[in-house]
């Protein structure tokens, strides 16, 4: 990267980056990481809660993404000593530093949705209605 005419590079975790944006995208890029972070932004969640909130993600992929986010220090994993074990995921203080960035990305996405498409409300049946419809 060039700053004030001088060239710099970033050495991080055994990799050399020539652009600061490359560091960011390597850590939180991809299809799922930012979405997982988004759903953890307000409160801790259990694995099953995240799985329900993120349509299209497989259990294996969610597990992989959570492990990587934990390894990178963005997410904490707390196992409660119960039977069966209850595991909760939450943003760490380091993960919370991403919130302004995530808010801006989401804001830009909503703007693009309004400008070039539409934003539509999804009607989901309530838990009570789902139980009744299975009969």
Would you give an account of this structure?
Helices cover 48% and strands 18% of the residues. It has 135 residues and is an alpha+beta fold. It folds into two domains: 1-30, no CATH class; 31-117, Arc Repressor Mutant, subunit A. Strand 1 and strand 2 (6-7) form a beta hairpin. The termini are far apart.
The geometry reads as flat
Number of strands: 7
Q: Supply Rg.
A: 19 Å
Query: How much strand?
Result: 15-25%
Q: Any idea what the CATH superfamily of the largest domain is called?
A: Winged helix-like DNA-binding domain superfamily/Winged helix DNA-binding domain
Question: Which H/E pattern describes the elements?
Answer: EEEEHHEHHEEHHH
Structural class, from secondary structure content? alpha+beta
CATH architecture of the largest domain: Orthogonal Bundle
| Approximate helicity band | 40-55%
Distance between the ends: 62 Å
Supply the key terms.
135 residues; alpha+beta; Arc Repressor Mutant, subunit A; 2 domains; 3-stranded antiparallel beta sheet; 7 helices; 7 strands
Quick take:
The chain has 135 residues and is an alpha+beta fold. The protein folds into two domains: 1-30, no CATH class; 31-117, Winged helix-like DNA-binding domain superfamily/Winged helix DNA-binding domain (Arc Repressor Mutant, subunit A). The protein contains seven helices and seven strands, in the order E-E-E-E-H-H-E-H-H-E-E-H-H-H.
What are the SSEs and their pairings?
Elements: E1 2-3, E2 6-7, E3 10-12, E4 15-17, H1 20-28, H2 33-39, E5 45-46, H3 47-53, H4 59-71, E6 75-80, E7 86-91, H5 93-96, H6 99-116, H7 127-133
Antiparallel strand pairs: 1-2, 3-4, 5-7, 6-7
């Amino acid at each position: 990267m060039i700053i004030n005419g001088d060239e710099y590079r970033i050495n991080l975790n055994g990799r050399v980056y020539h652009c600061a944006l490359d560091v960011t995208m390597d850590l939180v890029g991809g299809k799922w990481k930012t979405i997982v972070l988004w759903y953890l932004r307000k409160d801790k969640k259990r694995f099953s809660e995240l799985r329900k909130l993120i349509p299209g993600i497989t259990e294996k992929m969610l597990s992989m993404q959570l492990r990587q986010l934990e390894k990178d220090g963005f997410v904490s994993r707390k196992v409660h000593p119960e039977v069966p074990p209850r595991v909760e995921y939450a943003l760490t203080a380091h993960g919370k530093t991403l919130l302004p960035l995530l808010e801006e990305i989401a804001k830009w996405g909503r703007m693009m949705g309004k400008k070039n498409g539409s934003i539509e409300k999804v009607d989901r049946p309530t838990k009570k209605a789902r139980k009744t419809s299975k009969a």
